TrEMBL record:
<feature type="signal peptide">
    <location>
        <begin position="1"/>
        <end position="25"/>
    </location>
</feature>
<keyword id="KW-0732">Signal</keyword>
<keyword id="KW-0813">Transport</keyword>
<protein>
    <submittedName>
        <fullName>OprD family outer membrane porin</fullName>
    </submittedName>
</protein>
<dbReference type="InterPro" id="IPR023614">
    <property type="entry name" value="Porin_dom_sf"/>
</dbReference>
<dbReference type="InterPro" id="IPR005318">
    <property type="entry name" value="OM_porin_bac"/>
</dbReference>
<dbReference type="Pfam" id="PF03573">
    <property type="entry name" value="OprD"/>
</dbReference>
<comment type="similarity">
    <text>Belongs to the outer membrane porin (Opr) (TC 1.B.25) family.</text>
</comment>
């Protein structure tokens, strides 16, 4: 295992926290809430901010321009394989117009990841292009056409947030796609989405390639079609399903049902079940396979605390493939997704909201996931256990308002009886900060 200079690491981390905070004095509301980005399994349509407004606005007068700096440090110390370390500064510059005659809106976003630290012999963080190399890309440029209240058509470079087809925003830039999508956005009741995606830009790249190429069929140019629906009842039950076909390559079917049960006032149990099925089809450009995965999670929430238990099982014919982002397994955590061929996995987790701590709100969550895989045969691989801890601190005072600091640590312990086994420690610190220019 390579040894890091502790003074260098301390300087990098302190600078990663301080740089975005001192560079800007205005902010916009930080996005999201405490979450595990590797568990993106909601079946949603066109993004709400693109279609839910009903009052007429000015196309230029109601435009917004938002700078979203991000600083990201990642250090992965391995026992037997090469280490990876990198520190990047970048983020996004997002322009969004108002509505033209209440039916047309334009959106464009430029993403960048600039290398501040990244030795060539310790590449592999995913923060940069291989090399490692800095990059800048026009990741989004699209029009949204609203043809009815909360119903829209979006054309161009865009983000999706669907199971196995999404931004998977876990590095410096997200996956983005070239395509067309139609759908509606309804927090309750029936929602739908459908579309065609021609190309994808990976989260560590600046070029768009065909969907079949990204799936592993190099030099091919097949796209992907999808259609899905979701229903949310008044009682909070969610039922969703989506079908995706990468033509002449493979199909993915995903379905889920989730329901909250109130035990006593302030305490609920959420019961969740999901299914994924995948199989090759057409010319089988990446080979023949047929596999599926079931996953379940039960979560008890009481006041600022939450406890959860999850389990999943994957057929031994093939693991679940995710070339277009957004793994959906409830047991997908910081490093691994626990959906290898023949894998049975179990998770225990705990979350706590500390409330106000200094100038912001602090929360933390931890997970332990164990994956058991076949010891012999074509699906044989090393059993492993991942131990995770995430600490979030959202600052809300003065110049620091709306800065989101996230520190993450994961330790992966693999069965050393396998020659390819490799224990390692993964540490990350991410700073997100929104600055409104217009």
């Amino acid at each position: 295992m390579a040894t890091r200079n502790p003074l260098l690491v301390a300087w990098l981390l302190s600078t990663a926290v301080a740089a975005p905070a001192t560079a800007f004095a205005q902010q916009q509301v930080s996005n999201g809430h405490d979450h595990e980005p590797n568990q993106q399994n909601d079946v949603t349509g066109i993004s709400p901010e693109a279609t839910q407004e009903t009052e007429k606005s000015s196309f230029f007068g109601d435009s917004s321009l938002v700078l979203k700096p991000r600083s990201y440090y990642l250090d992965r110390d391995r026992d037997t394989k090469a280490d990876s370390v990198g520190w990047a500064l970048g983020g996004a510059l997002e322009y969004k117009s108002g509505w033209l005659s209440d039916w047309l809106r334009f959106n464009a976003t430029v993403y960048t990841s600039q290398k501040l630290y990244g030795p060539e012999d310790e590449d592999g963080t995913g923060l940069f292009k291989p090399g490692p190399e800095s990059f800048t890309v026009l990741g989004e440029a699209n029009f949204t056409v609203r043809f009815a209240e909360n119903h829209g058509l979006r054309i161009g470079r865009q983000r999706f947030e669907l199971p196995y087809l999404g931004s998977h925003d876990i590095r410096m830039t997200p996956n983005t796609f070239e395509g067309v999508a139609i759908g509606n956005t309804s927090p309750q009741g029936f929602g739908y989405m459908a579309g065609y995606v021609d190309k994808i830009k990976g989260k560590s790249d600046d070029e768009f390639v065909s969907m079949s190429h990204a799936a592993g069929a190099k030099g091919t140019d097949e796209g992907l079609g999808f259609a899905g629906a979701r229903y949310v009842s008044d009682a909070g039950t969610t039922v969703g399903a989506i079908y995706q076909r990468t033509f002449d390559t493979f199909d993915t079917v995903f379905a889920k049902v989730e329901h909250p049960f109130e035990i006593i006032k302030g305490s609920t149990i959420n019961a969740n079940l999901q299914y994924t099925g995948q199989q090759s089809q057409g010319d089988e450009l990446i080979g023949a396979f047929d596999t599926s995965m079931w996953a379940a999670k039960v979560e008890l929430k009481h006041g600022p605390y939450a406890w959860r238990f999850g389990a999943s099982t994957t057929e031994d014919d093939h693991g679940i493939i995710k070339p277009f982002g957004n793994p959906a397994n409830y047991l997908s955590v910081i490093v691994d997704d626990f959906d290898r061929a023949g894998e049975d996995a179990y998770m225990l987790g705990f979350s706590m909201n500390f409330g106000r701590v200094g100038p912001g709100d602090m929360s933390a969550f931890a997970n332990i996931v164990h994956g058991d895989t076949p010891e012999t045969g074509p699906a044989a691989s090393a059993d492993e256990t991942e131990y995770d801890l995430t600490l979030d601190w959202r600052l809300k005072e003065g110049w620091s308002e709306r800065i989101w600091l996230r520190a993450r640590a994961a330790y992966i312990d693999q069965d050393n009886n396998f020659a390819s086994a490799d224990d390692f420690l993964d540490f990350r610190i991410i700073v997100n900060y929104d600055f409104t220019l217009l």
